[in-house]
Amino acid sequence: MKASVSGGCSCGAVRYFSRALTEQVSVCHCRDCQGTSGSAFAVRAGLYSRDLEVQGAEAIAMHVKPGASGRATRRSFCSRCGSQIFISFDAIPDLIFVQAGTLDDSSWVNPNIHLWCGEKQPWVAVPADALAT
Ligand SMILES: [Zn+2]
Ligand SMILES: [Zn+2]
């Protein structure tokens, strides 16, 4: 686990920094994450909303949709290059999650939680020691 993180979108218009991380690094296999990522799942690291600093916020566009809780799920992406950067949930306002592929250094990322495994692609294997829901 790292003490601080930085990252940004593919074109560099949006950059973010955080001094603290949560312990949560998750993989989400839900259909929405498959669709919005254009891939089989999303990998993300949890940050504390209060610690997040963003540069280039004017380039961020947001797609808002009700999540499983009935409250909004907010997916932020760069309006210039389309990189998904953040996802947040109105049901848990203290946290914001960065898409792990946007981290400058993602070598430490080791997901310990797999979410929505009921919608998982059948060829994706969840490690036996991960928490799966
Ligand atoms: Zn960009
Ligand atoms: Zn998902």
UniProtKB/TrEMBL annotation:
CENP-V/GFA domain location: 5-109
InterPro entries documented for this protein: CENP-V/GFA, Mss4-like_sf
Record Gene3D superfamilies: glutathione-dependent formaldehyde- activating enzyme (gfa)
Superkingdom as given in the UniProt entry: Bacteria
Gene Ontology terms, MF aspect: carbon-sulfur lyase activity; metal ion binding
Keyword field: Lyase, Metal-binding, Zinc
Pfam families: GFA
Keyword Cell inner membrane among record annotations: no
Family from the record: Belongs to the Gfa family.
Protein name: CENP-V/GFA domain-containing protein
Species name: Panacagrimonas perspica
Organism placement in taxonomy: Bacteria, Pseudomonadati, Pseudomonadota, Gammaproteobacteria, Nevskiales
